[in-house]
TrEMBL record:
The chain crosses the membrane at residues 16-34, 46-65. This is Uncharacterized protein. It comes from Streptomyces bikiniensis. Keywords: Membrane, Transmembrane, Transmembrane helix. The keyword Transmembrane applies.
Amino acid sequence: MIVKKLHESGVRSEHAYLAAVGSIGLSLVSWLTSSRQENLERADRWGIFVGEWAPTFFGLGLALANYERDQTARPAGFGVDA
């Protein structure tokens, strides 16, 4: 249901994949910035915190890709949307 709502609002699998890659880059940038301004332990926490977003975005991208694939494989008007 959440994937269907996201798809209907215009979010596509490519958007989720881009967000995942962006979060990996943001994790590196936040770690580098924090390591120069704060102690190393706090910098590690910032990098890990932002880096934990990537698997969520990749998972959402996979769910959206499966939904998109199912929508294109099914003829219009066939079956009932869940």
